[in-house]
TrEMBL record:
It is found in: Nucleus. Belongs to the Mediator complex subunit 10 family. Component of the Mediator complex, a coactivator involved in the regulated transcription of nearly all RNA polymerase II-dependent genes. Mediator functions as a bridge to convey information from gene-specific regulatory proteins to the basal RNA polymerase II transcription machinery. Mediator is recruited to promoters by direct interactions with regulatory proteins and serves as a scaffold for the assembly of a functional preinitiation complex with RNA polymerase II and the general transcription factors. This is Mediator of RNA polymerase II transcription subunit 10. Component of the Mediator complex. It comes from Microbotryum lychnidis-dioicae (strain p1A1 Lamole / MvSl-1064) (Anther smut fungus). Keywords: Activator, Nucleus, Transcription, Transcription regulation.
Length: 210
């Protein structure tokens, strides 16, 4: 990469990011890849325009023979403006390739505020993880309550044992997990699984299977 008298890269340097784009397999196939590259080039051109405007040197003038912008309308500044316009035109031409890409408004707000847009991803993951823990806690509490209720109903109403056994299991249980079961034995009933531990606290004629 060549550098001119102003310390600004030459026109062919607008593609200096292209080599980096091939470091990952399939990177260039993303619909936003070309847009990202063009945006980086646009930012570089705007930066170079600011440098040219703040530090005008004789070699950057179009009238300077052998200068970096000799014979170019507007000199080096004109050349940078032309590059900027070309990059804006290229960005507009990509608009049809990202129509289906949805960007949350919060991400746009983060960019407007100068924040890292990846903060949105981090906050979203943390929020989802918290909601998932809360939901799992609720499901666990309901499942425990159902087990306790099943055990208590079996103790209080032995004649309903068959109905309790036939009640549908929660959708979250696996197919091989039968859940609490109540068995009729000689006028009393026995429980297995987790309900055996619950039934140990009752002072009724309950027989618990190992």
């Amino acid at each position: 990469m060549t550098v001119d008298a102003l310390g600004v890269s030459s026109p062919d340097a607008e593609h200096h990011h292209s080599a980096r784009g091939h470091t990952m397999a399939g990177e260039g196939t993303r619909p936003t890849y070309a847009i990202e590259q063009t945006l980086e080039q646009l930012l570089q051109s705007l930066l170079e325009m600011g440098i040219c405007a703040s530090d005008v040197q004789e070699s950057a003038l179009s009238s300077t023979p052998g200068g970096v912008a000799s014979g170019y309308p507007g000199g080096l500044m004109g050349r940078k403006v032309s590059q900027t316009m070309e990059q804006l035109t290229k960005l507009y031409s990509y608009s049809g390739t990202v129509q289906d890409v949805m960007i949350p408004l919060e991400v746009v707000n983060f960019v407007d505020q100068g924040k890292n847009p990846h903060m949105y991803t981090r906050e979203f993951i943390e929020r989802v993880a918290g909601e998932n823990m809360y939901t799992n806690g609720m499901l666990s509490a309901v499942s425990d309550y159902r087990d306790i209720l099943t055990s208590s109903l079996g103790d209080a109403f032995p004649e309903l044992v068959n109905h309790i056994r036939a009640s549908p299991h929660p959708a979250g249980r696996s197919a091989g997990e039968e859940g609490p079961q109540v068995k009729q034995e000689n006028g009393t009933h026995a429980m297995d699984g987790n309900d055996a531990q619950l039934g140990s606290n009752h002072e009724t004629g309950v027989k618990m299977e190992p």
